[in-house]
Amino acid sequence: MYLENRQELLEINVSNKNDVINKLGQPHTKSIKEEDTWIYIERTKTKGKIYTLGKNVLINNNVLVVSFNEKGIVNEKIFYNKDNMKDYKFSKIETENEIKKGSFVKSFLQSLRQKMQQNSRN
């Protein structure tokens, strides 16, 4: 059963988090800013025909966003498919990344150097 059909089983202001998990399973991801926003993703591909040179053909590219109120009841659900997803406008605002490239390596090497210096003092 496709995500599009399963999401119709959810009722706004009636279904709760347990109902959503029972009907859709665990969410693929949760919103970074809002813990009570769950995201489900369904993508189905198949081998293309000979005239498409065997390239994969996208059958489904569905996304369901489910939001809950403070009591855990569904208060909004938005379904996107491969056709209406083109209408979705992404924000042009970029978030600043505090982690610099190479910072893991740099911090790892600094940690290693500190341990070596401590060992040489002992």
Fraction of residues in β-strands: 25-35%
Fraction in helix: 25-40%
* Major β-sheet annotation: 4 strands, antiparallel
Approximate shape: extended
Low-confidence stretches: none
Number of domains: 1
Strand order of the largest sheet: 1-2-3-4
- By secondary-structure content and strand pairing, the structural class works out as alpha+beta
Rg calculated over all Cα atoms: 23 Å
**Overall average residue pLDDT:** 80
* DSSP E strands, number: 4
- How far apart the termini lie comes to 65 Å
Continuous helix count: 3
**Element-level helix/strand string:** HHEEEEH
Question: Your description of this structure?
Answer:
The protein has helices at residues 3-7, 17-24, 103-121, and strands spanning 29-30, 37-47, 56-68, 74-80. It is an alpha+beta fold. It has one domain (3-90). A 4-stranded antiparallel sheet has the order 1-2-3-4. The radius of gyration is 23 Å and the shape is extended.
Task: Compile the SSE list and pairings.
Layout: H1 3-7, H2 17-24, E1 29-30, E2 37-47, E3 56-68, E4 74-80, H3 103-121
Antiparallel strand pairs: 1-2, 2-3, 3-4
What would the keywords be for this entry?
122 residues; 4-stranded antiparallel sheet; 3 helices; 26% helix; 27% strand
Short description:
By secondary structure, the chain is α+β, with helices and mostly antiparallel strands. The chain has helices spanning 3-7, 17-24, 103-121, and strands at 29-30, 37-47, 56-68, 74-80. The chain has one domain (3-90).
